Amino acid sequence: MTSVKEFRIEEPASDDELGAGSFVFTDDYSVFDWGKMPDTIPEKGASLCSMGAYNFELLEDEGIPTHYRGVIPAGSDDPVPLADVDEPPREMAIDLTQVPELPHEGREYDYDAYHEAAGENYLVPLEIVFRNRVPVGSSLRRRTDPADHGLDMETWPDDGVDLDDPIVEFSTKYEESDRYLSREEADAIAGTASIDDLEATALGVNRTVTDRAEDAGLTHEDGKIECLYYRGEIRVADVVGTFDENRFSYEGTQISKEVIRQYHKRTQPEWVEAVQDAKAKAKRRDIADWKSLCESAPEPLDDDVIQIARDLYAAGANAYVGRELFDAPQLDSAVGEVWRL
């Protein structure tokens, strides 16, 4: 189980064949790598499932292979296309690949052992991040200079930077605290999967999601994908192009999980600082489990904040998929409520 969706296995994957299973999207949410937070956002899971399914079907139409097999309507066991459901789905049928254990001692991870167990059918232990914009506060500004990305500026400006060409980065997937990697490090961690193919797949996904967002009146700022490797082919895995995996905005206002992240920064700064301190302390001590060192826990959200977040997810999903799947206000009204936060 992940922090926001449950994982069901019908047929396990083997060294030679993909398996079958599904994701069941819950209304849980996670910020700052905390995992399950103390409350839920109603219909959040269904909105992520709907957007993810819509994007997987777009990618398949574009010839980009994925692990998606359809959504499963309530009361059914058989996957169908998103267009065939009348109610927002919560379950998505997927092909399964192998995900071996990743041994580690402290913060040293043994990727050779991972790939020895994985063979030629495995989940690539990377997240591939693509950026169309570098906003104020982006970690990219702390880690790199504009010249590192071919940008004609000496330092990052005070406002956001819209990119003519997307920036692609690689980060770890299964380490306790994710870290960004050099291309050489990412290539080694990817195993048999080609780093060039992974990058090309990410750019293809980015184009598809960006074009659809523009048609829906949204701006797609950045996102990430995960991939599986099967018989020499890269396939997009996990879920793609949702308000949790990607950052979208509407007329300059965020409609992604970033809204909730920023709300916690404003209203629970002591907890956010404790998380940052615990991560830094774990790194100094070479301990993977930073959460055990955190000296405080998050508080639940107020009911009106939960309602605003719910409407934002639901209205955004309606706009993105081009259907009134959810009983929700129009997107401009839902975004207007965000300003109350």
Please sum up the structure shown.
By secondary structure, this protein is an alpha+beta fold. The chain has helices at residues 44-61, 111-118, 139-143, 183-190, 195-215, 258-267, 269-285, 303-321, 331-338, and strands at residues 5-11, 19-25, 68-72, 91-96, 104-105, 108-109, 121-123, 126-134, 161-172, 180-181, 219-230, 233-237, 247-250, 253-254. It has a single domain (5-338), classed as D-amino Acid Aminotransferase, Chain A, domain 1 (2-Layer Sandwich), CATH 3.30.470.
Note poorly predicted spans: none
Q: Which structural category do the helix and sheet elements fall into?
A: alpha+beta
User: What's the helix-strand series?
Assistant: EEHEEEEHEEHEEHHEEEEHHHH
Count of helix runs: 9
Mean pLDDT, all residues:
94
In the CATH hierarchy, the third-tier topology is known as D-amino Acid Aminotransferase, Chain A, domain 1
How would you explain this protein's 3D organization?
The two termini are 31 Å apart. This protein has a single domain (5-338), classed as 2-Layer Sandwich (D-amino Acid Aminotransferase, Chain A, domain 1), CATH 3.30.470.20. The chain contains nine helices and 14 strands. The strands form three sheets. Strands 7, 8, 9, 10, 11, 12, 13 and 14 form an eight-stranded antiparallel sheet that branches. The protein has a four-stranded antiparallel sheet with strand order 1-2-4-3, with helices on one face. Strands 5-6 form a two-stranded antiparallel sheet. The protein is an alpha+beta fold and 341 residues long.
